[in-house]
Specification:
heterodimer, A: 164 residues, alpha/beta, Rossmann fold, 5 helices, 5 strands, 59% helix, B: 366 residues, Heat Shock Protein 90, 5-stranded parallel sheet, 10 helices
Chain lengths: 164, 366
């Protein structure tokens, strides 16, 4: 079950996004501003954060910078949603290191698509870790077999010598 | 760390421009003129990032991304689209396909570099996460590798040469018996053989000991090192011209008694074995610093040449001497490293040798 955190000061939009994502089967947390959002990110360690930009008292950009400089939250992907929808605005958000930038009013398909893409990327990474772990475990097992063989050879050899 | 980036773009001028910008920034850059070549190159070069145009003959950027995402080997390579189609809707289409970013032409250098840096930074974070999660396994693997090498060495070198020795001695004895029909010299040969075999047995005991030193078998409790060292000194077989002395009273500390005993036993026995003087002195001392107990074992023996100072702690490495099995100090080092301590040696050849080892002071009073 993937967890998503929404940081948005306008209650109506926050709940709309929340409903859409819950319908898609995600576990959703809500925060009304950047400060609460940052604290919640620490506490819940979500798989993805969706954040508005203009919010008092800590705006989306400021929150994102805080998240990125904290080792506990730096690898959580973030998508901005904003009414500021010019190409230059998108660039500013992306240049900060956001994973995507959606413009308000929210297009449901775009939102669901963007979320799906980012969650998929995360699953691929997790899968990579699982694969690598399995590969290494295999190697460890293999080597252990070799060690056991050598060990028993040493013992056999020494016994042989004793019986000379 | 050098990062590799693949550019997929059909317009030569743009391809070269991006190439130059990225090369100037110190990246390793590959070029492909369409999606088909781009996909093949991604498979071959496994780049850290791909920057791709969209409209290209022979597999467009969209088609290539689709192919990349379906392939196990390329699915996690981040991709940035770069396109003249710069409307908000166009950007959405590209992002919805799973691109990591979407830049519009004409290229703005700062935006390009910023996007590249961001995506590479993310990739480093991800790779770090993977290596963090697999660190324990890697450590086990590394340990096993050492063990494996030790066993291989043991079989291929130590035991083999001993076996060869014994069988040579055996052959000579036989030969002699056949030729002269008397066994005058045979008893000496047989003694030599016995010697060899005893040495191998001892080696095996030590190897088992070394293997059994695992964190799980350390049971730390309060140890009076003074009494412990005295006990060890009395137990050790030594000629009467060698005296063992504790300089200042040794501290009480938390450690595993058996392990500590073994450690002093090996170090003191080594010292005894290497004394060639008419009067032999071995002196054990300990200085207490803020962080460590710094123990020292000094002897006035043959000394160790500087070129061996590191080597002697490796398995089966001995200084030209047949008294040593080449495993004692490996055991000592393994015990000390369990306490996160270190051991080193200082020596003046023909005059003296001092082994120093430290055990960090802990507040472990469990």
């Amino acid at each position: 079950m993937h967890k998503i955190l929404i940081v948005e000061d306008t209650l109506a939009i926050r709940e709309e996004v929340c409903d859409i994502l819950e319908m898609e089967g995600y576990v959703v947390f809500q925060a009304g501003n950047g400060r609460v959002g940052y604290e919640m990110a620490l506490k819940k360690s979500p798989d993805l954060i969706i954040s508005d930009i203009l919010m008092p008292p800590l705006n989306g950009f400021q929150m994102f910078k805080k998240l990125q400089s904290d080792t506990r939250t730096m690898s959580i992907p973030l998508i901005f949603i904003s009414a500021k929808g010019e190409k230059e605005d998108i660039r500013i958000g992306m240049n900060l290191g956001a994973e995507d930038y959606l413009c308000k009013p929210i297009n449901i398909d775009d939102l669901v698509n963007a979320v799906k893409n980012k969650i998929k990327k995360k699953s691929i990474i997790d899968q990579n870790i699982i694969d690598k772990t399995a590969r290494l475990s295999n190697l460890v097992e293999n080597q252990k077999g070799k060690i056991d063989t050598l060990e028993s050879q040493v013992i056999k050899l020494t016994k042989l010598l004793k019986d000379l | 760390m050098l990062y590799t980036i693949l550019i997929v773009e059909d317009t030569l001028a743009i391809r070269d421009e991006i190439f130059d910008i990225l090369i100037m920034e110190g990246y390793i850059v590959f070029k492909a003129e369409n999606g088909k070549v781009g996909f093949e190159m991604a498979l071959k070069e496994n780049p850290d990032l791909i920057i791709s145009d969209i409209l290209m003959p022979n597999l467009s950027g969209f088609e290539m991304l689709d192919k990349l995402q379906k392939h196990q080997k390329t699915r996690d390579i981040p991709l940035i689209f770069l396109s003249a189609k710069g409307k908000k809707e166009d950007i959405r289409i590209g992002m919805n396909l799973g691109a990591e970013d979407y830049l519009t032409k004409p290229i703005e250098i700062n935006n390009l570099l910023n996007a590249v840096e961001n995506k590479l930074k993310k990739k480093v974070l991800r790779d770090q996460k993977v290596s963090d999660k697999t660190a324990t396994l890697n450590a086990i693997l590394e340990n096993q590798k050492n063990e494996l090498e030790n066993y291989s060495h043991l079989i291929s070198h130590e035991l083999k040469s001993s076996v060869r020795n014994v069988s040579d001695l055996l052959a000579w004895t036989k030969e002699e018996a056949a030729q002269t029909n008397n066994f005058e010299n045979s008893s000496l040969m047989i003694e030599l053989m016995q010697d060899k075999i005893e040495k191998m047995e001892l080696l095996l005991v030590r190897i088992e000991l070394y293997k059994n030193i695992t964190p799980a078998c350390f049971r730390d409790r309060l140890i009076y090192t003074d009494t412990l060292v005295e006990r060890v000194a009395n137990k050790i077989e030594k000629p009467s011209h060698i005296s063992i002395k504790i300089k200042n009273k040794l501290p009480n500390l938390f450690a595993d008694e058996k392990m500590l005993e073994k450690l002093f036993e090996i170090l003191i026995q080594n010292a005894v074995n290497h004394i060639d003087k008419e009067m032999g002195f071995i002196e054990i001392d300990c200085k207490i610093t803020k962080k460590d107990y710094l123990f020292s074992i000094k002897d006035n023996g043959v000394g160790i040449h500087e070129k061996y100072h590191k080597k002697i702690f490796e398995m089966f490495q001995t200084v030209e001497s047949n008294k040593s099995l080449g495993i004692g100090l490996s055991i000592v080092e393994k015990i000390i490293s369990n306490y996160k301590g270190k051991i080193h040696v200082e020596s003046i050849p023909q005059k003296q040798t001092i082994f120093y080892f430290n055990i960090p002071i802990t507040n472990n009073y469990e």
